């Protein structure tokens, strides 16, 4: 039974990303999925976010370097509000921007299972940084949060 799938740096793109997301909706065995450098982009990112709402076994997801932008960040944030299994999410080196960061911060106020979130190098800026700083008072499950290389500035760490 397959519990870990590593498709790191295969640049398979949206054409394979959407069917993979559809399969993930039905999968009841996979607990860890590495799609780093997969090339999901917009449609694949949104399809995967939809799958996160339905999947009940995945605990670790690596979406590093997938050209995900604020819209995909918002879709993933919406999924986190409903997902009760995911404990580790790596979104490093995408382009979520301040809007994606704010959406994820809102989701972290509701999500009670995520313990590790890597948002390194996402152009979150000071607004995204402020939103994430504010959730640190409310979220009691997150134990690891990586915000390096996001140009947070002096305002980004204030709540």
Automatic annotation (TrEMBL):
Signal peptide: none annotated. Keywords: Repeat. The keyword Repeat applies. It comes from the Eukaryota. Pfam families: LRR_1, LRR_6. This is Uncharacterized protein.
């Amino acid at each position: 039974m397959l519990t870990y799938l590593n498709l790191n740096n295969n640049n398979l793109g949206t054409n394979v990303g959407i069917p993979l997301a559809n399969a993930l909706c039905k999968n009841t065995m996979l607990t860890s999925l590495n799609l780093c450098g997969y090339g999901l982009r917009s449609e694949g990112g949104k399809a995967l976010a939809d799958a996160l709402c339905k999947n009940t076994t995945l605990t670790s997801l690596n979406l590093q370097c997938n050209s995900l932008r604020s819209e995909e960040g918002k879709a993933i944030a919406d999924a986190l509000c409903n997902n009760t299994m995911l404990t580790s999410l790596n979104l490093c080196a995408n382009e979520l921007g301040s809007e994606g960061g704010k959406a994820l911060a809102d989701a972290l106020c509701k999500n009670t299972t995520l313990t590790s979130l890597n948002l390194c190098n996402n152009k979150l800026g000071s607004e995204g940084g402020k939103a994430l700083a504010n959730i640190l008072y409310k979220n009691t499950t997150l134990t690891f949060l990586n915000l390096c290389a996001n140009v947070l500035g002096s305002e980004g760490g204030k709540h």
